Amino acid sequence: MSTVARPRTGHRSPSAPAVAAGVAHPARRARALMLGVLIVLSLFAAQLVRLQGLDAASVSAAALGERLQSRTIPAARGSITDVDGDVLAVSVERRRIVADPTLVVDYTRTEQAPDGSRQVVGTGYAAAAQVVSEITGADQADVLRRLVDPLGEQYAVLVPDASPQEWQEIKAANVRGVSSEELMRREYPLGEAAAPLLGWIGSGEMAAGGIELVKDEELTGEPGEALFEIGQDGQRISTGVYEEDPARPGQDLRLTIDADLQWRAYDAVRTRVKEAGALSGYAAVMDVETGQLRALTSYPGFDPSQSTQDAADMRNAAVEDVYEPGSTSKLITAAAALEEGIVEPDTPIEVPVTMSRAGTRFKDAEPHPIEYLTFGGVLAKSSNMGTILYGEKLSDQQIYDWMRRFGIGDRTGLGLPGESAGLVPEPSTWSATTRYTFMFGQGLSGTLLQQMGVFQTIANDGLRVHPSIIAGTVDEEGRYTEEEPVAAQEDERVISEETAQSLTEIMQQVPSTGGTAPLAAVPGYHVAGKTSTASRIDPETGRYDGSVTSSFMGFAPADDPKYVVAVVIQRPTRISEFGGVVAGPVFADLMRYALQQEGIAPASTPPAEFDIEFDPEEPVPGQKGVTLGDLAIKDERTDG
Questions:
Q1: Containing H/E element for 465?
Q2: Strand, coil or helix: what is 187?
Q3: Residue 526, domain member (yes or no)
Q4: What average pLDDT does this structure show over 173-193?
Q5: How far apart (Å, rounded) are the C-alpha atoms in residues 570 and 282?
Q6: What is the residue-wise DSSP string for 198-241?
Q7: Residue after which a domain boundary falls, among 180, 202, 221
Q8: In 3D, which of 460, 444, 421 has the Cα closest to residue 562?
Q9: How far apart (Å, rounded) are the C-alpha atoms in residues 462 and 455?
Q10: Which domain-ending residue is among 180, 213, 245?
Q11: What is the pLDDT of residues 265-284, one digit of tens each?
Q12: H/E element holding 87?
């Protein structure tokens, strides 16, 4: 029986693989590795389940939130139009070209080569600046500077004001990181001709001056908001989320102004100021019955689109400037004397060569011998001394009260910014000569509109109507709401119809060949008006500086007045200093244009006749041995 030897304990079988001490068995190591991979995969799976299942909504919202951007949609400011709906001020859409420099830096500009391939012609800021410059006309170096030195890390304004068409071209060029912001720019078709009246929109889109400021609340709209998605290149994703709360435009405003007449008035005043070497000038056209202004302008004007100009030059001189009215105030003295029963239209007045009152010697504008004028003649020939002779029969308080009754010293109620009330000192402050100078318009001050109101009152049979300039409003649905016209009330009566008629007949003698302002005549129409040549006060010294304010104001047709026209030229140095010569032609041009535009036919009857002189030797009917010279008001004082 054979015997098999058994291996000794501690010895490996020759067929068993060798495994180094401390090293895991390969099978076990593979199993561990597989287990680790499965654990990692399970973690990924769990996270995927969480993201796509449990947290899908929140994760999606977070991603969308990173892509969403909002922008304000500017509201169009309401338009301002003239009485016929022609635009005087309007907001137009513009674009602000902006960029994210962190995206623009990676921009590559390519062009198609002759072989049809695309070749790179520029990269980064320089390429983007070149595209924007070529399309908008902006200075390329300036656009590049704005990219290199932006307002913020991700915000640069490349072109502050571009047209929508220019933006569409830039957009089509697909410049990485470049976008646009909507904005509104105010445009004024009449430019300087209406700027002082309309005002302007200053920095920060703030209304300044004129109608823009007065009616800012009505004109201002409500901005909207847009919410949209953007991609990595900063451009809007056209198929992405887009929500919009639209802007609501402001209310449109219609004025009583006639655009054609406004421009003509401005051009006429501008031309005359230059011809006369004058400082400035203003003009206005008013409807007699309603007080509605058809034109209100001044020169020099300013460009309303350039809000960086000196504020001192951006003012409405036609309502802000105060000046001594001069001879147009003689109408008030004349009306007071008629109303108080001191004179009749044909009362004879003997006007001396000179006369002395309160230690001061008075004279008329031009030297003359003794003149024998009727009361109407004194007014028509604008005699200072004749005015004093009948005016001194009024008390100081009566003179003051009548000035105030006609509106001198009070704002007109038009409501435009900066309107002055003028200055009418109370009798207690008067010097010894004030009562006399008041009678012919010195020692007090007023505005163009205040003086114009005197003529409107007379033309309207003695009823005063405050001026107005707002015709109505138009809402966003296009519905027009007319402003209620301010009709004259009997309690606004200043003088009687009889007095108004007498003054009208007298003033018809002024713009005639025998009057003081033949250049103010309007061929074919009967015109009633008055000249003025008043001394100017230097605002720095408070003293007369030797220059004058030349004006002419009046109304037509005299027998059925439709319009009042006022023209004032400040400090003329050429042509003449007399109001009839300097301002009269401008008055005639504007009045003729206004009447013909309204379709008012020329007169078919001769103008009213009025005796402006009298024969001192002519007997007084019914009074034997008494002549008109005996009854005349004359200077019987040496002083006083």
A1: none
A2: strand
A3: yes
A4: 91
A5: 9
A6: H-EE-GGG-EESHHHHHTHHHH--B-EEEEEEB-TTS-B-TTS-
A7: 180
A8: 460
A9: 9
A10: 180
A11: 999 999 999 999 999 999 99
A12: strand 87-99
On average, the pLDDT of the chain sits at 88
Whether residues 374 and 478 fall in one domain: yes
Task: Give the mean model confidence (pLDDT) for residues 603-619.
Answer: 91
- Predicted model pTM: 0.83
Considering the domain architecture, whether residues 147 and 282 belong to the same structural domain is answered as: no
Spatial CA neighbour of 73 closest among 265, 253, 191, 226:
226
**Does residue 294 contact residue 594 with C-beta atoms inside 8 Å?**
yes
Asked if residue 445 is part of any domain, the answer here is yes
Sorted by sequence, the CB contacts under 8 Å of residue 428 that are 6+ apart come out as none
Same domain flag for 158 and 287: no
Using DSSP's 3-state secondary structure scheme, residue 380 falls into helix
**460-519 residue pLDDT tens:** 999 999 999 999 998 877 888 888 766 555 568 999 999 999 999 999 999 987 677 999
Q: Is residue 278 domain-shared with residue 151, that is, in the same domain?
A: no
Backbone angles phi, psi at 218, to 5 degrees: -70, -35
Q: In this predicted model, which residue has the larger pLDDT, 304 or 586?
A: 586
* 144 and 284 inside one domain: no
**What's the CA angle centered on 186, arms 158 and 163, to 5 degrees?**
40
Q: What percentage of the chain exceeds 70 in pLDDT? A: 88
- Same-domain check for residues 169 and 285: no
Write down the pLDDT at residue 202: 82
Domain total in the chain: 2
Domain-located, residue 330: yes
| Domain span holding position 478 | 274-295+323-631
How far apart are alpha carbons 548 and 540 in whole angstroms? Answer: 16
Q: Examine the domain organization and report whether 432 and 564 are in the same domain.
A: yes
Q: What is the pLDDT of residue 9?
A: 47
Which CATH number fits the domain that encloses residue 534? 3.40.710.10
Among candidates 409, 411, 402, 393, which has minimal Cα distance to 330? 402
Same domain? 285 vs 172: no
Residue 286 confidence (pLDDT): 98
Per-residue pLDDT reduced to its tens digit, 527-557: 999 999 999 988 788 889 999 999 999 999 9
Q: How many other CB atoms sit within 10 Å of the CB of residue 444?
A: 20
Burial class (CB in 10 A: 0-12, 13-18, 19+), 131: buried
Query: Counting beta carbons within 10 angstroms of the beta carbon of residue 330, is it exposed (0 to 12), middle (13 to 18) or buried (19 or more)?
Result: buried
- Please check the confidence at residue 51 and state whether its pLDDT lies above 90: no
Q: Is residue 239 part of a domain?
A: no
Q: Which amino acid is at 35?
A: L
Would residue 238 show up in a list of annotated catalytic residues for this protein? no
Catalytic residue among 79, 327, 502, 532: 327
- Concatenating the DSSP letter of every residue in 471-493 gives EEEE-TT--EEEPPP----GGGB
Contact 240, 228 (CB under 8 A): yes
